[in-house]
Amino acid sequence: xxxxxxxxxxxxxxxxxxxxxxxxxxxxxxxxxxxxxxxxxxxxxxxxxxxxxxxxxxxxxxxxxxxxxxxxxxxxxxxxxxxxxxxxxxxxxxxxxxxxxxxxxxxxxxxxxxxxxxxxxxxxxxxxxxxxxxxxxxxxxxxxxxxxxxxxxxxxxxxxxxxxxxxxxxxxxxxxxxxx
Length: 180
Description:
CATH class of the largest domain: Alpha Beta
Radius of gyration: 18 Å
Number of helices: 7
Number of strands: 5
Helix content: 25-40%
Structural class: alpha/beta
Distance between the termini: 44 Å
CATH topology of the largest domain: Alpha-D-Glucose-1,6-Bisphosphate, Chain A, domain 3
Number of domains: 2
Order of helices and strands: HEHEHEEHEHHH
């Protein structure tokens, strides 16, 4: 229930002063509970009249970039960072793709018990399902301080890590793009 209450309060918070239906980017990590929590968050946002851009499995920085890329009103990252695998949490982002301020967080906490759901005619929709991973990688590689040629000859090892941003096992993701 906390996921629904806090998501509904966040939806109310980002909907204030918005003339059109707000859009929120939702991304998650690979936790076992991730898909279930995603369904609760997306359904709650829709029920509050918010449209969703579903980024699927996406890192926190990827969701932050997607918020600004799509001009969304905010974003929610479903992760508990380095906490045990049975945990999950909501990282709430503003329209700049940045974590909410302490003041905004306090305001959302006050709104938790008073959130309203939309009428059936005003329900939100999943407006886009995206894989923002490659866009994120492209944005990282385009940064002026990233010198891929300086990294390649160093023989950097990724310790056998696999995944969307890892190398080895097919040299995918950012590590593969750098050529490690």
